[in-house]
Amino acid sequence: MKTFCGRANPTTGSMEWLEEGEDYDYHQEIARSRYADMLHDKDRNVKYYQGIHAAVSRVKERGEKAIVLDIGTGTGLLSMMAASAGADFCYAIEVFKPMANAAVKIVEKNGFSDKIKVINKHSTEVTVGPDGDMQCRANILVTELFDTELIGEGALPTYEHAHKYLVQEGCEAVPHRATVYVQLVESRRMWSWKKLFPVHIEAEDGEKILVPPSEMENCPGLPSVCDIQLNQMPSSDFSTLSDVVKMFSVDFSKPVQGASTCYRVQLEPVKSGKAQIVLSWWDIDMDPSGMINCSMAPYWVKPTSALQWRDHWMQCVYFLPREEPVLQGEKWYLTACRDEYSVWYNLQKARADEEEQKADVCVESPVCRCRAHLLWNRPRFGELNDQSRTRQYIKSLRKVLKTDSVCLCISDGSLLPVLAHYLGAKQVQYFVLFFRSLHFSLAFFSHVFFKANDLEDKIKIIEARPELLKPSHLEDKKISVLVGEPFFTTSLLPWHNLYFWYARTAVSSHLASNVTVLPQSASLHMMIVEFQDLWRIRSPCGICEGFDVRAMDDMIKDSLNFRESKEAEPHPLWEYPCKSLSEPQEVLTFDFTKTVPQHCLSTEGSVKLLRKGRSHGAVLWMEYHLTADVSVSTGLMQLSNEKGNCEWNPHCKQAVYFFSSVIESEILSDPTAVEYAMNFDTKTGEIAMDFKL
Ligand code: SAH
Ligand code: ZN
């Protein structure tokens, strides 16, 4: 069997369907899975074990046999905990076949084959009865089906079904309940992930202000969750307007309703300000008494000593439909609406006459009407709102634009054509080139955006692929200034934005002989780092709470090594602190004033390690040299030299290449240098790399 995988080709900018072997999907899923991170989550594991112990004991004390249903068993960990705690029998359900196979191996290895039956099915397909998958209904229900938003992985419908068909009435559930907490905040930084702020431009003829269209101002945005490592958000970046409030709870030992519903709480702001954001997280009580509690509360809510790092559960940022000015001591209602898989929020002023009555406040799930939220993801909004970045582009554009410039911009959903227009002469035409997957939304939004700023006849939108650009598109003029951020929505790794170079190559015949290309070049930079925590997601676990899970480790290793050369993976490093062990080093350069060469660009060398620490991997990022003296970095912004603390661009993902010492969990004697070899294949637009410690 073959599978087809959609992937953007960085040399053509378009989606391509690649034929992959049947193992491909499964290796990708395992390699990028969160299983390793869960097995390293000591706090979670210990508390599940305590909760399972307590539940088995309660059932035994009643003189009953303890029959466990473990939905989503993964490695089989929770079933093995139950069997060790004295459970009589466990049904371990796992829908993902490679995981179910691994669970069988791990259960056998740990000597529990007679107590645990692994069933490779979705829980809703499981049958009960003498000839069924389960002999009888279970009296203990154990699950770990939660995501950062609690319900996003389908926990509610799974529980609803399990209570109807798979467990006894009055069963014990581990966890026993989950509670969702919220806190209202004002934060320019987080609000900038949803709104486009006006852009101020000092033009020749006075200040110009670029405004977002009204459609965008009132757009509720997208329903998809924004989950982040909130513990990396400094307290100076937001201001809390309310106490932490319990929003809703789900009792897993009773029948659970998946159907859409709303919850409303009354809030009194503790401070006046602009309510923009609802921060949210949850905790789970493993037992009815609430003594065994596992919480995702961020650092300002719980003592830092109790913080467990984890990546499989973080915190959520919800954007209110619009900003509401609130005064300290006023009464407001905060409503959480949810369907089976997602949650959204609404804030309303309480009126005296509706004090008691629960108003019908359920609102529709947010749907983007302006299309900007489809074009720009949250980090991209943040990037477009980054004033110091915009200033760099303004500064460089001012240098290269002349009154008679013919300018062509190549970048997805970019403000550059508008900046270029304001910074150049009035009669000059600017061209924007559109293509690729979001083409229709891009074209639509750009029309609306240019219109809102009275630019519809100043900036021409060309809807064509670069290789199909015709002289008529350009009114038979040659391009004198070619600009790009560059930014493309389909880029996954930093160097995928080199698509700009390919597009530049495709439009070569339309460029004037003295064309200025901005950026004039790009460079790939690299640094060796020690991660504070991120290494856990790719590091083997070995023994987890006394259970041998090495079969899982081996499976992850196999999947990571599935391709001959390992791949770098994208991570937003502002969320994942690391310490630099080497100086940042420029490893490759790309000259945009010339076309993409036929041959590959390769380099090799050695990086000296300056500090003691564990070399977990290399971080790679791009820098764009807009003009000779103006550069923007999509990676390292600042490096403190004594300790090696790094500050990363908060709007971009950097590429992380984990060394095999992390994946193999080898202890190396401190290396003094790392050797590297890199090859940019100009045919595929991909970079292959290899490191030796
Ligand atoms: N219980 C393990 C793994 C948790 S990850 C542990 O705690 O370490 C959740 C697992 O549940 C995944 O492997 C996923 O494939 C599986 N899963 C999710 N919903 C399921 C369902 N309704 N039926 C069967 N498996 C499910
Ligand atoms: Zn929108």
TrEMBL record:
The family database entries (SUPFAM superfamilies) matched by this protein are listed as:
S-adenosyl-L-methionine-dependent methyltransferases
Q: Name one Pfam family in it.
A: PrmA
Instruction: Name the GO terms of the biological process aspect.
Output: cell differentiation; methylation
Query: Ranges for the Protein arginine N-methyltransferase domain?
Result: 176-347, 520-664
Q: Which GO terms describe its cellular component?
A: cytoplasm; nucleus
Record InterPro entries: Arg_MeTrfase (IPR025799), MeTrfase_PRMT7 (IPR014644), PRMT_dom (IPR055135), SAM-dependent_MTases_sf (IPR029063)
Q: Does the keyword DNA-binding apply?
A: no
Q: Which UniProt keywords apply?
A: Chromatin regulator, Cytoplasm, Differentiation, Methyltransferase, Nucleus, Repeat, S-adenosyl-L-methionine, Transcription, Transcription regulation, Transferase
Kindly list the GO molecular function terms attached to this UniProt entry. histone methyltransferase activity; protein-arginine omega-N monomethyltransferase activity
Biological role stated in the UniProt entry: Arginine methyltransferase that can both catalyze the formation of omega-N monomethylarginine (MMA) and symmetrical dimethylarginine (sDMA), with a preference for the formation of MMA. Specifically mediates the symmetrical dimethylation of arginine residues in the small nuclear ribonucleoproteins Sm D1 (SNRPD1) and Sm D3 (SNRPD3); such methylation being required for the assembly and biogenesis of snRNP core particles. Specifically mediates the symmetric dimethylation of histone H4 'Arg-3' to form H4R3me2s.
Can you say what this protein is called? Protein arginine N-methyltransferase 7
Q: Which gene encodes it?
A: Prmt7
